[in-house]
């Protein structure tokens, strides 16, 4: 496949590109080739997910122009970044880049690091905007410090603020949380969510952590061995049982829902999604607010009748859509389609359950069986 | 105490070392930058050429420079056609010789400092809309500052301390090429041991103070957490 001239007439709403890049690797390994045709929405967060060595970072570096890819092309929201006649050098692409290691300039204070970007920004940054970005990342009190005096999480927050201050039209984030420990991750994730909600910049977010992807991504690309093996809406891609990357206990679906009711007596909130209702701990969101929850496959158990005498709060009537083998020979995976009580239409939202092969046989479950899914826990991810 | 001749020698030495250091920083920094970043095949041979003065006897360097810059050498003919006369036995002849002789002491620390930074700071700056020139001035150079400081001190001190090359190319002309090391040699030959003592003690004191200042500065730098030393 060669250069694709269609890319140059791309609509202003999409990011399209093509990269073919053979890269030499270590001695005995076979050669790695990035071979990607990209066509993703120009808004929201696009997660790029894959195991390490699948080419996620290389793809991001090609998009940024940090990695030269001779056989490639790229157009971002109607603007050609790499084409037949010209390839923009990195510093002429309106992008922001957050590296895996927090890469603040060690010779400048946090504030001077921010000013480095502000001075060179694509559009002028007003004092209010400057203050807003600093407040968004919660770094007001860190400005006078040198990077060496800051923790990894603090450095990364400053680095994200710096990338925003350049006023990019595309934000690229290369595993921004990977170098941080669990506590620091928890500390930064809320800031990233705020970023997603407050700013209207498309973000490409590379990660190999399902948790981050489940929380942040609207759109999802799965990469394996230099290729995109699956893509689509994050909730749809994550609700497939044949997920190409083994996830183990992290396998589960994300469900986009809205708060429908809040019960102050029980401190619970009812959320509604295409396919039913779930009761969650009330976390303070107003009625009508969008919310995303994650239901792990191991947290769903199945029963043939509706047990009402149980402590489990959430039960949904479901129909078995598909039964597939799990990587664990004792288990099977099931894709469950919620049965709408009031409508006959099918929904896109599915659940995935993982049960033992023994239970499957004892309960005589087959494709099309109607069951009750008991959901032991639902995590609010955003 | 120091005679007028001694003071003239000291003054000449300081002038020479300062001129040479400035020239070395101007020549050495781009050379170090190129050596640190290039993937050219010329990298190996150029590195070796720059390092040659470290291993060659100063007399060898002096001898070849004398040949090249003399009236029948290619450089000598060039300078003569330009109306500059020949360089040997002049102050500027010493400058040229010292630049070549002290080059590795300047290039190597700067190159190390740039290599220690890795590509990342420059990549980050590129994503922050800094052009190549901007990146060099605002990131690469400031981060290489400790290396550049080391390079200047070493280049300066090494020029002050040279003897063999000076003798070969500069001879012993008062006020023109008679630097401190040559002056000490003269005193010893003339059995003026007291004078030789004074001047030698000045050299020892000067060198010690310079090196002490360098190490103290580097300690302060590493205490600040800048991971780039020599």
From TrEMBL, chain A:
Record flagged with keyword Cell inner membrane = yes
Query: Does Nucleotide-binding show up as a keyword for this record?
Result: yes
Entry's PROSITE patterns?
ABC_TRANSPORTER_1, ABC_TRANSPORTER_2, MOP
Which SUPFAM superfamilies does the annotation name? MOP-like, P-loop containing nucleoside triphosphate hydrolases
| Pfam families to which the protein is assigned, alphabetical | ABC_tran, TOBE
Q: Which InterPro entries match?
A: AAA+_ATPase, ABC_transporter-like_ATP-bd, ABC_transporter-like_CS, Mo/tungstate-bd_C_term_dom, ModC_ABC_ATP-bd, Molybdenum_import_ModC, Mop_domain, P-loop_NTPase
Q: Name one GO molecular function term.
A: ATP binding
Q: Which residues form the ABC transporter domain?
A: 13-250
Q: Which Gene3D superfamilies match?
A: 2.40.50.100, P-loop containing nucleotide triphosphate hydrolases
- Residue ranges annotated for the Mop domain, each copy included: 309-382
Per UniProt, which keywords does this protein have?
A: ATP-binding, Cell inner membrane, Cell membrane, Membrane, Molybdenum, Nucleotide-binding, Translocase, Transport
Coiled-coil annotation reads none
Read off the PANTHER family from this record: ABC TRANSPORTER I FAMILY MEMBER 10, MOLYBDENUM IMPORT ATP-BINDING PROTEIN MODC 2
Write down the NCBIfam families for this protein, in alphabetical order: modC_ABC
Return the protein name: Molybdenum ABC transporter ATP-binding protein
What is the source species?
Microbulbifer harenosus
Q: According to the entry, what is the taxonomic lineage of the organism?
A: Bacteria, Pseudomonadati, Pseudomonadota, Gammaproteobacteria, Cellvibrionales
């Amino acid at each position: 496949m060669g250069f694709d001239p269609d890319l140059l007439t791309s609509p202003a709403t999409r990011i399209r590109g093509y990269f073919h890049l053979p890269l030499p690797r270590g001695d005995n390994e076979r050669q790695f080739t990035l071979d990607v045709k990209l066509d993703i929405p120009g808004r929201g967060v696009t997660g790029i997910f894959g195991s390490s060595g699948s080419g996620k970072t290389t793809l991001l570096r090609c998009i940024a122009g940090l990695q030269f890819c001779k056989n490639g092309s790229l157009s971002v929201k109607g603007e050609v970044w790499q084409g037949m006649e010209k390839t923009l050098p990195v510093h002429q692409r309106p992008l922001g880049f957050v590296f895996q290691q927090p890469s603040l300039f060690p010779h400048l204070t946090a504030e001077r690091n921010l000013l480095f970007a502000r001075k060179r920004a694509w559009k002028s940054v007003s004092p209010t905007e400057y203050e807003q970005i600093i407040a968004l990342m919660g770094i007001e009190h860190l400005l006078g410090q040198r990077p060496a005096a800051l923790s990894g999480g603090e450095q990364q927050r400053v680095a994200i603020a710096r990338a925003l201050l350049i006023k990019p039209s595309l934000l690229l984030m290369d595993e921004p949380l990977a170098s941080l420990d669990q506590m620091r991750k928890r500390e930064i994730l809320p800031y990233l969510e705020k970023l997603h909600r407050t700013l209207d910049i498309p973000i490409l977010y590379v990660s190999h952590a399902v948790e981050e992807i489940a929380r942040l991504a609207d759109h999802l690309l799965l990469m394996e061995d230099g290729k995109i093996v699956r893509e689509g809406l994050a909730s749809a891609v994550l609700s497939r049982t044949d997920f190409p990357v083994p996830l183990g206990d992290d396998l589960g679906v994300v469900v986009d829902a809205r708060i429908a009711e809040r019960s102050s007596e029980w401190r619970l909130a009812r959320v509604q999604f295409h396919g039913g209702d779930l009761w969650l701990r009330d976390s303070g969101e107003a009625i009508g607010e969008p919310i995303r929850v994650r239901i792990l496959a191991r947290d769903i158990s199945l029963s043939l009748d509706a047990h009402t005498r149980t402590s489990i709060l959430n039960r949904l009537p479901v129909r078995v859509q598909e039964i597939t083998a799990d990587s664990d020979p004792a288990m099977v995976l099931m894709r469950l389609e919620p049965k709408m009580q009031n409508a006959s239409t099918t929904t896109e939202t599915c659940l995935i359950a993982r049960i033992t092969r023994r239970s499957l046989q004892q309960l005589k479950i087959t494709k099309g069986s109607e069951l009750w899914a008991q959901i032991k826990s639902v995590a609010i991810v955003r | 105490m120091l005679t007028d001749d001694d003071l003239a020698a000291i003054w000449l030495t300081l002038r020479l070392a300062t001129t040479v250091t400035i020239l070395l920083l101007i020549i050495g920094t781009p050379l170090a930058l190129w050596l640190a970043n290039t993937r050219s095949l010329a990298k190996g041979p150029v590195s070796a050429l720059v390092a040659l003065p470290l291993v060659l006897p100063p007399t060898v360097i002096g001898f070849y420079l004398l040949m090249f810059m003399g009236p029948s050498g290619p450089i000598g003919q060039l300078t003569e056609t330009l109306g500059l006369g020949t360089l040997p036995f002049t102050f500027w002849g010493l400058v040229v010789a010292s630049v070549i002789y002290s080059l590795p002491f300047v290039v190597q620390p700067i190159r190390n400092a740039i290599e220690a930074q890795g590509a990342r700071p420059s990549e980050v700056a590129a994503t922050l809309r800094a052009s190549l020139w901007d990146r060099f001035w605002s990131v690469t150079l400031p981060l290489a500052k400790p290396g550049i400081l080391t390079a200047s001190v070493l280049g300066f001190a090494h020029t002050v301390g040279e003897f063999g090359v000076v003798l070969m190319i500069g001879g012993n002309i008062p006020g023109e090429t008679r630097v401190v090391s040559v002056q000490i040699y003269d005193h010893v030959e003339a059995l003026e041991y007291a004078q030789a003592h004074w001047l030698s003690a000045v050299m020892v004191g000067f060198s010690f103070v310079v090196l002490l200042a360098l190490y103290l500065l580097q300690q302060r730098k590493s205490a600040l957490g800048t991971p780039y030393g020599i």
